[in-house]
Amino acid sequence: MLTRCFLFAVLLSASHAVFSSGERFTISVDEPSVRFIVVQSRDPLIEWAAKDVADDLSARTGSTFVVVKSDDEAASTPFIHINVDGSLPLLNASAFPHGNHEAFAIHTRQDTLVITGADVRGTVYGLFTLAEKMGISPWQWWADVPVKKASVPLTLDKLPVVEGPAVKYRGIFINDEDWGLLPWASHTFEPDTANIGPRTYEKIFQLLLRLKANTIWPAMHPGTRAFFTVPGNKEMAHRYHIHVGSSHAEPMLRNNVDEWDKQQSGDFNYTNNAARVNEYWRNRVEQVSDMSDLAMFTLGMRGIHDSGMEGIHSQQQAKDTLQQAINTQRAQLEAVFGKPAETLTQMFTPYKEVLSLYEMGLSVPDDVTLVWPDDNYGYIRRHSNRAEQKRSGGAGVYYHLSYWGRPHDYLWLSSTHPALIQFEMQRAFENGADRIWIANVGDIKPLEYNMEWFLHLGWYGPDKVSDAKTFATYQLDRDFAISDPQSAADLLFDYYHLAFIRRPEFMGWSQTEPTTQTRLAGWNGETIENRLQQYQKLETSIFELSKGIQPKEQSAWFQLMSYPVQASSEMNKKWLFRHKAAFAVSHSVADKLMEKALDAHNTINGLTQQYNGLSEGKWAGMMDAAPRKLPVFNKPAMITLTDDEKQKRNRVNDGAQSKQIKPASVKFISPEGYSWQEVRDLGYSGKALTLYPLKLQYFSEKAAVTYQFTLDVAQHVTLNVATLPVHSNDFSHEIAISLAQKPITIFTLNTKGRSEQWKQGVLNNRIHNSVDLGRLSKGTHNVTLSVNQNGIVIDEVWLSEHGS
Questions:
Q1: What DSSP string runs through 416-453?
Q2: CB 368 within 8 A of CB 348
Q3: Which of 21, 198, 520, 581 could form a disulfide with 232 if both were Cys (CB 3.0 to 4.6 A apart)?
Q4: What is the DSSP letter of 151?
Q5: What residue ranges in 199-293 does DSSP mark as E strands?
Q6: Domain boundaries in the chain?
Q7: Measured CA distances, 348 to 354, 372, 384, 395, 404 (Å)
């Protein structure tokens, strides 16, 4: 890392095309004179970033920005001055949560705009923040978003801008890359490597820096060569100052899937082959001994891939073996690097079976960061308790935006709701997870906007930014010359809302591990018709908006908007028309409905072919419409039901989703220091309720919501309560139900492990509880829901006829 202070500046001719006025700085457009960026730096990363931003500003303003060295005769009085100076008062370490690590300031000095970084990455982030504030997208290369030519002067206001990261290490995990990034890199972008190599990682690292991220967990699935075995990968991480870590299943920066040779080394078994395993780990530590500032070591051990340790016969044996492995790994780090282990960045991820071992009392050194995973479906399984929040290593989060596994994969489209991402990450952040955030982003594409949102939350802090839809509006306004970006954001969030109710990959009602065949939909006819109408509305909207997209923006628009919306719609039509065909009144009607289902299937294939042909074949091989070839991606086949089967299914589905009686009013009771708030766009309701702040707290005072219902006639009713399938540390979320202040029952909300209740919870994004309230008289009735702690999210509450 750079320790000296170096100067580079943007220099303009005497025409004063750039000027500052107090707290504003304006760059005019279409200036005929050349604008010089003068670079004096020994770190090539700063020079690269300067050249990138020079190209951005040239395209944006219609003027020419040129990078020259400081001793070039073109160097003269700077109008934009950029330097590295950690001693700048604006960058006082006490003003930031992690010292002035990666901090920068954009400010004015007389007629000069000054960008000062506390270190090299901070300087680079300052440059890219300038580009961002000038309306330049980070998705130029990865989604073909063109730089929009400005027709009016560009103004940077609200200066000074002083920023530093809320989360110290922010990055992504490339995973399940078998159907996207790996074939694309191997055959289209980097055929000379025939794998994911330095050319691909260079583009990934450049993107990370534009998104103010700094960490990679490299791809590691079968077929992908281990990161450190490909010449040039390690050097590329050095060049771009990117931290390299590894997933929960890859201790000590080892890709077991590609690197462990069972024939040569025996079983990956620490109970009877520890010497070989230790040697295997130490060899990698020695290989990265020259990158102590960038290497991030995962401690612990699991199986070769995503499985439990081999050779284990009891929980106690597993805990003892894992403890031995961690102790040995720490000793190796100290021996190779010649300094205390606590000076090196280390992580421990209690994922799946490892969480139970941790909770049995496994000793994880205090300086090691605890990285809490979600349950693979966006709900963080564990948060740091009060004692864990005092650990010097702090805590982090490993969060899935893409997943392969039970109960069903979602590897195809970006379908995690941005409002859920913000809520869950804010919950983690308020409970101390500010050290490491990693998002599993699959192949990066088509998760671009959600990936950016996740990293945006990590840089600014999830409690300091606007809501998710506001950010989406900003993204679309930045990336496309559309007259109404709010309408585009509304459309995108309608897409996310429908996916929240059921992801497109789940529309076959099939599961995996074990894989089951597709089934008829678990909805009644009215729900199916409403959903088809909603998707038709989305298709109409995307078609109308597409008319206003400029030709040079069409490729980006298709990648970021049209493909996910249209493909998701077709997947729903494929299976819902098949469902309707099974209940058709005649063979001819059934045939027509099946024809629609088959048309939808073929349309998905056509859209995918179009995607892979975009930008003159740049993305050939990136999009696969059937990852893992699961049954949901198959051509739909007719299901024939008898009349009795049809009647039985109709009774079940109609009963399960009968008419709802909504509450007429809602009243809140909050403990001191807490308040009930709606989370915008979250849940089926789009306004789920929870208590803020989110730091873990049990309540002795009453914390409740009272719903008032009005019945037009006396009737026997059932109370239904839908909550989000969020988790508590000890499975203790409870809601006590009372009617007219009389206790009725207590709902326990949390699921454990991979139970059937958990599976249905994540497939549907809700936990549904109900209780019989008996026969209620005509008039108003008050039902109170009392929660025992914060973190519980109430989505919808309604009454229905008894038995429904």
A1: S-HHHHHHHHHHHHHTT--SEEEEE-TTSTT-HHHHHH
A2: yes
A3: 198
A4: S
A5: 215-217, 243-244
A6: 7-163, 169-465, 487-656, 665-801
A7: 10, 9, 13, 9, 22
How far apart (Å, rounded) are the C-alpha atoms in residues 298 and 169? 14
3-class SS shares of the chain: helix, strand, coil, % to 5: 40, 20, 40
Q: How far apart are CA 375 and CA 448, in angstroms?
A: 22
Strand partners of residue 783: 707, 739
CATH architecture designation of domain 665-801 = Sandwich (2.60)
Cα 51 to the center of its chain, rounded Å: 30
State the Cα–Cα distance between residues 344 and 285, nearest whole angstrom.
12
Could you give the strand order of the β-sheet that contains 161-163, starting from the edge strand earlier in sequence? Answer: 64-69, 34-39, 7-11, 78-84, 112-117, 104-109, 161-163
**CATH architecture designation of domain 7-163:** 2-Layer Sandwich (3.30)
CATH code for the part of the protein at 169-465:
3.20.20.520
For residue 251, cis peptide bond before it (omega within 30 degrees of 0)? no
Alpha carbon distance 552, 476 (integer Å): 15
Residue 148 makes CB contacts below 8 A (sequence gap 6+) with 60, 135, 481
Over range 702-715, report the average pLDDT.
95
Q: Find the angle CA(632)-CA(602)-CA(450) to the nearest 5 degrees.
A: 60
Residues 502 and 497: their CA atoms lie apart, in Å, by 9
Question: Position of tokens 């409403």?
Answer: 530
Distance CA 708, CA 553 (A): 50
Distances (CA, A) of 493 to 247, 414, 683, 690: 31, 12, 12, 21
Q: Kindly report the CATH number that applies to the domain delimited by 487-656.
A: 1.20.58.2150
Pairing of strands 18-21, 169-173: unpaired
Helix, coil or strand: residue 393: coil
Backbone dihedral angles phi then psi of residue 163, each to the nearest 5 degrees: -135, 150
In angstroms, the first-to-last Cα distance of the chain is 64
Residue 766, CA distances (Å) to 76, 177, 278, 484, 655 in order:
63, 29, 44, 33, 18
Cis peptide before 222 (omega within 30 of 0): no
- 8 Å CB contact between 322 and 269: no
Per-residue pLDDT tens over the stretch 742-795: 999 999 999 988 999 999 999 999 999 999 999 999 999 999 999 999 999 999
For tokens 């989406």, the residue is 472
* 3-state SS, residue 389: helix
The torsion angle over the Cα atoms of residues 269, 272, 276 and 278, rounded to 10 degrees, is 80
Q: Which of 449, 443, 455, 344 is nearest to 399 (CA)?
A: 455
pLDDT tens figures, 192-207: 999 999 999 999 999 9
Q: Taking a C-beta distance cutoff of 8 angstroms, is the pair 348, 356 a contact?
A: no
| Best CA proximity match to 168, nearest among 440, 422, 459 | 459
Identify the residue whose tokens are 């010449």. 231
DSSP string, 517-528: -----SS-HHHH
How much is the pTM?
Answer: 0.96
- Please state, in angstroms and rounded to a whole number, the distance separating the CA atoms of residues 618 and 559: 12
State how far the Cα of 449 lies from the Cα of 761, in Å rounded to an integer: 25
Give Cα 667 distance to the centre of its chain.
34
